[in-house]
Design goal:
heterodimer; A: 754 residues; alpha+beta; Aldehyde Oxidoreductase, domain 4; 3 domains; seven-stranded mixed β-sheet; six-stranded mixed β-sheet; 18 helices; B: 165 residues; Ubiquitin-like (UB roll); DNA polymerase, domain 1; 2 domains; five-stranded mixed β-sheet; 5 helices; 5 strands; 16% strand; globular; AldOxase/xan_DH_Mopterin-bd_sf (chain A); Ald_Oxase/Xan_DH_a/b (chain A); Ald_Oxase/xanthine_DH-like (chain A)
Chain lengths: 754, 165
Amino acid sequence: MSAIGRSLKRLEDRPLLTGDGCFAADNRADGQVHMRIVRSPIAFGRILDIETDEAKALPGVIAVWTAADIADLPPIDFRMTRIAGLEPYRQHVLARDYVRYVGDPVAVVFADNPYIAEDAAELVFCDIEEETPCLDATADPVAFMPERDPALLSEAAVITKSYGDMEAAFAGAAAIIEMELKVGRHTGVPLETRGALAVRDPETGVLTMYGAAKVPHYNRDSIARMLGLEPEQVRLSEGHVGGGFGIRGELYPEDVLVCAAACRLGVPVKWVEDRREHLMAANHSRDQVHRIKAAVDANGFVRGLVDTFYTDQGGYVRTHGGTVSDLAAALLPGPYLIPAYHVEGHIRLTNKTPSGTYRAPGRYETTFVRERLMDAIAARLGLDPMEVRRVNLIPEDRMPFDRGIEALGTHVLYDSGKYHDLLDRTLTRIGYQDLKADLARRRVAGEAVGLGIAFFVEKSGLGPHDLVTMAVQPDDTIEIVTGAASVGQGVETAMAQICSDVLGVPIERIRVIHGQTDRIAIGFGAFASRVTVMTGSAVKIAAEALRDKAIALAAPLLQADVRTLTLEMGCVVSRDSGATIGLAEIVAQSGKDLDAEGLFRADHMNYPYGIHVAQVRVDEAVSGIQVERYLVAYDVGRAINPMLIEGQIVGAAAQGIGGALLEEFIYNEEGQPLATSFADYLMPTCHEMPPVEVLLREDAPSPQNPLGVKGAGEGGITAVGAAIAAAVDDALGRPGLITSLPISPRRLHALLRR
Amino acid sequence: MANKHVITLIVNGKDYTLSVEARRTLADALRDDCGLTGTHLGCEHGVCGACTVLVDDKPVRSCLMFAVQAEGCSVRTVEGLAKGDALHLLQKAFWENHGLQCGFCTPGFLMLAAGALEADPDLSEEEIRDILSSNLCRCTGYQNIIKSVCLAANEMRACPPSADR
């Protein structure tokens, strides 16, 4: 039986269930010292002085550094989407001249235990001349660091993309619809905070950072470059990772500091952040305002769409460069034809925590924008919202569909999709007409209940390539080494299933090594829903090469022609004689290694797609919203392990519900963050979660990889804001009411009074 | 801050004699002094519940309790849940029903559920949901956690664990 498509139990789980996991904070080394960051209490201001004497005098304190002590370290560079002009906005490891958000690292304390490090950090005094913070990305740009460079303004870049004849689109329009739509500031918030342990081997000089995640190879190279070391002198090692969601594993100031300190202090250095720090220092995300203008015909067909949007980038431009804005600009049109499109995305610096990617970056925001537009068109023209979508969806016979613009430097080419078919299946699954009638009856009876449906296109499988090595071990297990990373999503199991599918070896006999820079020369890590597509394809290629090599080596041992040999259940079998030989036995008898490499390249991303359905009940008395039912229909091309995919989808939907209803980083007018604990930054508990149904489809395999797979990690979150907003409108009978997320009780209360 | 107290914690049936400052949390004592890193710290302010352990059979947030307060108490952590190689029914159910992804919150959920089901084996699904709402998970969306605990509760009722702990 094929190992692909089966809901096998995960290989990863046992140590995680017994307490034997090794997360970042679980690493320790003899003689380790503890690092604590002193963070700016001020949102924006010029640093006059940082007084560290008192901290240094505390018994147990080993060193206190400010920017002056590490003046040789360059700022943290971009990993992705380097856009001309962004360089001056990069973040230094410790603030220089100015602080630009509450939480900006200004000094760092090293002490022999974490309690003393924290005591000492509180004794560091920052003398900062306060400036008026900029907290509105749509306001006119202001000086980034007024005294250092008065001409450098807070608009770091503008991303423009365009196709089609806009003038013609508007000239013949039956209606023109303008809207302003906003998605609030929220982010991944993995349950494990960040942390690292850096150890330099005094004999070899090799620096090892434990607690790596997401992109270990890239970060190894960056850390080496910043510290003036050769890449082979730096090793990054990933253990268990307590959730990623885009934010964890990017190179942050603290990662560089632990490594620099391990080198300069000559002792192992450990750092574990607390939750308050995490909420003000790790990447935030979303926070976009879109101003759109659409020309539509009488059927609701969008002839042309113009969007100007503003991304609130926060205090600095971090490793993602222009990624979020670029993706938002490129993928806003989603599943619709939209023959003319013009977008201008402004990347604006403010005095909030710097932003980066969070699960479905740019798509959560633009799906909200685009699907709100579809609902507005339906309301304006008196059409059914599903009909409006039908006339706009890209038909199957137009696939592959060339959007004519680029995303992340790759041509946007929708590889496959049966959009109308999925819409029909989804509406059938929920019993659309009956459900609408049922909700209408409940509304007549006095309940504020409604239905919202939103379509989306995701993207996955970002290249450029991925390598795996695979080798049969003496104990007859197979070891796969990949440069991919695991952030808890089940990479080991999925890769083992793909390998097992070729070799017939049960997954329990396959070990997957990931996130270890000393085990494989290259690796691109885990982001952009790329692992199953890229690494999975490389595993398949390697397994097929291993199979061919096993047969070639077995032929003389079995005295058989290779054409009569097959690989079944991990053994080479002769169809003629019935003789068999196991893989480890082939190694033992032939005296040769049984190993292989797989390299997979991809020039284009691929594009999974889906539909979210939300049914909500609004309690007008308390401005509360209860999600009664939720469905995600998602076509992933081919499902390696449906149980894991459903797990991804349901978990992502929970995060999406958080972003739609609860989660928001609010700042007061001084730029003080008001959500720096879990009592203020509210994430869904199981009480807020409805039952989530998953309609998993494999109708449109990707023609761009040998497995046909598309990424499954993000589609559960993409359309949540859009679907819930539509459902709330419907429940209240007020089309177009919701234009901003999250729909917090406070915001809904204000809307209901209007 | 140099004032230290010598205390004895009974963790998973084993005595640990520690010298700790009064301000040392139970979580830090378990993780750093006893070397039991299965108890995780997700927020250190008592909201997420990742650090939940059983103190005299009751679930507590070990980040909100000082080690000195647990002197002489029986503390149970996730490391004590399995009996040798034999996983606890809750652990088995989480594995079989994909009740974990990154696994960081898992020890807290396991201990919370274990404590709740020992106190009342007949909890309804709604009561279980209510209890589990006191912990946070960021990966699973909770569906499979609730399913795992409910299925384990059924099995535990069918074959109650022996009284020895």
